[in-house]
Amino acid sequence: MTKINKNYLELKDSYLFSTIATKVSEFKTKNPDKEIIRLGIGDVVLPLCSSVIDELKSAVDDMASDSTFKGYGPEQGYLFLKDSIKNYYKEFNVDLLSEEIFISDGAKSDLGNLLDIFSKDNVVVIPDPVYPVYVDTNIMDGRKINYVNGTFENGFLPMPTEDLEGDLIYICSPNNPTGATYNRSQLKEWVDFAIEKKSIILFDVAYEAFIYDDDIPHSIYEIEGAKKCAIEVCSLSKTAGFTGVRCGYTTVPLELECDNVSLNKLWLRRQTTKFNGVSYIVQKAASGVFSKEGRIKIKENIDYYMENAKIIGNALDELNIKYIGGKNSPYIWLQCPGNMSSWEFFDYLLEEVNIVGTPGVGFGENGEGYFRLTSFGHKENIIKAVERLKTLKF
Ligand code: MLT
What we know:
Blueprint: H1 16-30, E1 37-38, H2 50-63, H3 79-90, E2 101-104, H4 107-113, E3 123-128, H5 132-141, E4 144-149, E5 168-172, H6 184-197, E6 200-204, E7 230-235, H7 237-240, E8 248-251, E9 257-258, E10 261-262, H8 263-274, H9 280-289, H10 292-318, E11 323-325, E12 331-335, H11 342-353, E13 355-356, E14 358-359, E15 370-374, H12 379-390
Parallel strand pairs: 1-13, 3-4, 3-5, 5-6, 6-7
Antiparallel strand pairs: 2-8, 7-8, 9-10, 11-12, 12-15, 14-15
Helix pairs in contact: 2-9, 10-12
This protein binds D-malate (MLT).
């Protein structure tokens, strides 16, 4: 008889954002006239910039002509895009080789797929609260998880301790969901810890483009020793509005070894077997992100979202609600007012002012009593949302 992977039965019934989408659509069915403002899932609203659109169009034309048509591409990505990424990293004084960069369809899939190359016996260190994908993908494989606590007191930036055990360590900075960011010396501590314990860090920098402050690294490879202990995963979803286009990149340094085996080789072997690469059209579009005009336009879009974050932060200040984030990150992580639980606050906001956010507890036990708002929205909606928030009595 066929057997299922029983680890799946250990998962929560549905993925956090699917649960929220169901709740919101039930509310909408009962209240068709209410205008809902969605500040829940971190989904971009601004259209792709013109340099991306131009590349997309020219790539479509390429596919229409015998001389420029492309079939299968290199599974790990076209050189033209890898070269753009290499140049981008040079801005942070990080030198990468083309063979170290793997183009993907986004951070979420790579973060899950990377686990293929690691033993299910590995113990995993995951911060709480955290992006649910880290937890769920490890539950699917049946790995033991050691949580490290993020709290208001430590700024939701847990640090390693001597007694901490873990073979794989997840770090997300700027953090989803809290918006907290590790500075250079804090990341150095994690890198030193990983090297000492012979652990591997899976570093998620999906939000690096939102970093404004100089002392916050955009890449873990800015930290000495990181190429010996870290894989870095990035995405163009939030950087350039690619949530619907799908493109990201993962870096596995050539010098990175585990069990005396090159992880770059293992990942290449995994990808060439299970992945046929991102489409030529999408990779061309992604190259438009790194062009001179692309960089300027993308920065304007990020400034726009960060202005939204400021508007939300100012309103929370007025309401005397404590929060972090919203500075080098598009997420604002607030303490639910009136001692409400995360889901109570979710329901309260939805019913009273028709605003959707994300309950902090959906990101882990330490998120109970907290709530995440995203600054990805049109400015007029953000302004409307804060006006509605200000009508509430807590
Ligand atoms: C979020 O809202 O946390 C993100 O949009 C989810 C994701 O990037 O997969």
